[in-house]
């Protein structure tokens, strides 16, 4: 009965113990979803204390390899979710900015102060390279209106 | 047809997802929820049907979440 790290193999079934304090439940669902074509998966345990991911291979293969790949996928999705939360506001603002060009009613709901703060934050230009085209080369008077 | 029972932990699986899966599998095998801790009885000849049922419920549960 091989037992390594958080992996436990018994009766052709792999049980992966996941610490919910390290990995969010959403990441567990996402990682499990990725392996559904290769394995039969059942979630068990307690989402607050310890999550158990039980896997059975659909075809021949190594359960240990499957478990290690699952661990990698878990880490991948945890990082993705962390970054998604960190960039949530900027993504929403970008989307609002894209929509505003077509729908004037959206403009009323936008917090322009927040947009200005973001512009100041992201357009910090110590090299002095962020110069508008017109400012650098002048306006093209021959350009058709 | 043999009767099989599977346990789907109610802390991870939604009742709506199980009901959708039961509806989807009704042509293949009759299933029903036995109790509130989501013990599901499946009438099927092949064990793999029960395993596929678990995957199906997991897929619906995950799809119903918006991250």
Overall description:
The complex is a heterodimer of chains A (about 140) and B (about 70). Chain A is of the alpha+beta class and about 140 residues long. Chain A folds into two domains: about 5-85, 2-Layer Sandwich (Gyrase A, domain 2); about 90-125, no CATH class. Helices cover about 45% and strands about 20% of the residues of chain A. A five-stranded antiparallel sheet of chain A has the order 1-2-3-5-4, covered by helices on one side. In chain A, a hairpin with a 3-residue loop joins strand 4 and strand 5 (about 50-55). The relative contact order of chain A is 0.11. The mean pLDDT of chain A is about 85. Chain B is of the alpha+beta class and about 70 residues long. Chain B has helices at about 15-25, 45-65; strands spanning about 1-5, 30-35, 40-45. A three-stranded antiparallel sheet of chain B has the order 1-3-2, with helices on one face. Classes of the chains: A alpha+beta (about 140), B alpha+beta (about 70). The interface between A and B is medium-sized, with 18 and 18 residues.
User: Could you tell me the mean pLDDT of chain A?
Assistant: 86
What strand line-up does the widest sheet of chain B have?
1-3-2
**Low-confidence regions of chain B:** none
User: What's the CATH first level of the largest domain in chain A?
Assistant: Alpha Beta
Q: Which range does the strand content of chain A fall in?
A: 15-25%
N→C terminal distance of chain B: 40 Å
CATH T-level topology of the largest domain in chain A: Gyrase A, domain 2
Helix count of chain A? 6
Net shape of chain A: elongated
What structural class should be given to the helix and strand makeup of chain A? alpha+beta
Residue share in β-strands of chain B: 15-25%
What is the arithmetic mean of pLDDT of chain B? 87
Radius of gyration of chain B: 11 Å
Mind describing the biggest β-sheet of chain A?
5 strands, antiparallel
